[in-house]
Amino acid sequence: MSLKAYLDKKLIEAGCDEAGRGCLAGPVFAAAVILPKDFHHPLLNDSKQVTESNRYELREVIEKQAIAFAVAEVSSKEIDEINILNASFLAMHKAVAKLNQKPESLLIDGNRFKKYHDIPHTCIIKGDAKFASIAAASVLAKTYRDDYMRQLHEQDPRFGWEKNKGYGTEVHRQAIEKYGATEHHRHSFQLIQWDLFHQH
Fold first, then answer.
1. Which of 96, 114, 177, 194 has most Cβ atoms within 10 angstroms of its Cβ?
2. Residue 125: phi, psi to the nearest 5?
3. 13-19 and 28-34: which strand pairing?
4. How far apart are alpha carbons 186 and 95 in whole angstroms?
């Protein structure tokens, strides 16, 4: 199924998506992308369906050809303070605010969003597999977040962040059990699955 170029041809639309919502460590990242109405790239799809090398290839194309794009993040500390859903909305708001062109409509991946100023929005479930601008936003959010987690890994290699990117893999959870949580962990999340390690 090919991605739709737009929801409304007459409006300047920005696709928005986030990455890292389900992670135990690191910020949540979001991107907002305004693409030309005739944008097409054969590799572009939901970033989870695209190989890592293709994501980075796509990032270059998107950044060159987009009318406007922006990436923003919300820290793990802030996630703990306002919860992950609100942090995801805030990251998307911050990305939209950084765009150098004001969109007339926002296409949001998912089923919930907090209105951003006076810009109308449409929530689209699995939007990153339906609309090019959301798919492009998902690619940017994911690649920028992966780069960030690799940098964190270089500072602290104990948790395998270069591979798990902060997701709750067994290796990651066992490292938390062994070393304790760091400032990069989301302390409001269940970091250790007790039933895994402490069989009753």
1. 96
2. -65, 135
3. antiparallel
4. 22
Range of the domain at 126: 13-197
Contact 190/22 with Cβ under 8 angstroms?
no
* Residue 7 maps to a domain: no
- Extract the tokens encoding 163: 């591979």
Please give the tally of structural domains in the chain: 1
**DSSP-derived secondary structure for 3-19:** PBS-S-TTS-EEEEEEE
pLDDT digits (tens, 9 = 90+) for 27-59: 999 999 999 999 999 999 877 789 999 999 999
Q: Is residue 43 included in any domain, yes or no? A: yes
Alpha-carbon gap, residue 55 to 76, rounded angstroms: 24
| The two three-digit tokens of residue 184, written as one number | 């990069």
CATH code of 56's domain: 3.30.420.10
The owner of tokens 């929530």 is 123
Q: Which residues pair with 32 in a beta bridge?
A: 16, 70
